[in-house]
Amino acid sequence: MSPAVTALRTAADRRSERVTTTRDQLLAVSEPFIPLLPLGGLRRGSTIGVTGRGAVTSLALALVAEASAQGSWVAIVGMPDLGLVAAHELGLALDRCLLVDRLPTGTWGQVVGALVGAVDVVVTAPPARVRAGEARRVTARLRERGTVMVQAGGKAPPGAPAEVSLTVTGVRWEGLGAGYGRLSARRVSVERTGRGAASRPLAADLWLPGHDGQVATAEPEPALAEIHPLLVAGAT
Predict the structure, then answer these.
(1) DSSP string of 57-102?
(2) Strand partners for 185
(3) Interatomic CA distance for residues 218 and 210, integer angstroms
(4) What is the CATH number of the domain that holds 179?
(5) Could you tell me if residue 5 is left (phi over 0), alpha (psi between -120 and 50 degrees) or otherwise beta?
(6) Per-residue pLDDT of the chain (236 residues; tens, 9 = 90+)
(7) What is the pTM of this model?
(8) What are 121's strand-pairing partners?
(9) How many domains does the chain have?
(10) Cβ count near 16 (within 10 Å)
(11) In which domain, by residue range, is 121 found?
């Protein structure tokens, strides 16, 4: 085991007693995410999956931004293309982030396992090949130490299913006119599925970000009949 991993495990062991007594607490999320999570926050020891057709990394970072703003430490593992400026604009407190951008082959479980308990949240893009036993050990350690894992993109490793899955089903940028203007807001459609309390599917639209640069709930778009009932009637 490398000295860096040993040091992380030592830090985790020193924090284990405090974390274990608070593992049933929730880590805060910003208001737009409250309806999408069964308990209205990130339950300690749980795994959240974020997948879909674009904006996956932004959604994952926005999901944990409020926790970091309130003092939680976040580790970001195996995401070398992460843009720190964009992460900060989504609300992530960079002074409470640990970055492990590139992992040697076959070390994902070892590195994530060492971070569990040392930080409150691990955001990670798991590699394509993770052994089921390795994933199960990480999941067990999450539950024991009370760390939240957010899997950003890809398929969940066998043995580490997500309790809550957020899937991006649509992305639309706004701000461009007929050959002019600039992108100023991104509307993202999200569906929630999962197990247990999250088994009832939910859907929501979010601004990620909105025209003011903030993450917010997007109002449902009116149906065509609500826009102009006579026009719809004449088209049938």
Answers:
(1) HHHHHHHHHHHHHTT--EEEES-TT--HHHHHHTT--GGGEEEE--
(2) 174
(3) 9
(4) 3.40.50.300
(5) alpha
(6) 565 555 556 555 555 444 444 445 899 999 999 999 999 999 999 999 999 988 999 999 999 999 999 999 999 999 988 999 999 999 999 999 999 988 888 899 999 999 999 999 999 998 888 888 999 999 999 999 999 999 998 777 777 789 999 999 999 988 765 555 567 899 999 999 999 889 999 999 999 999 888 999 998 776 544 445 554 444 44
(7) 0.82
(8) 74, 148
(9) 1
(10) 15
(11) 3-235
| Beta strand pairing call for 97-100 and 121-124 | unpaired
Give yes or no for a contact between 92 and 114, defined as CB atoms under 8 angstroms apart: no
Task: State the residue for tokens 């909105």.
Answer: 210
Cα 116 to Cα 148: distance, rounded to the nearest angstrom: 8
Nearest Cα neighbor of 205 from 218, 192, 224, 222 is: 218
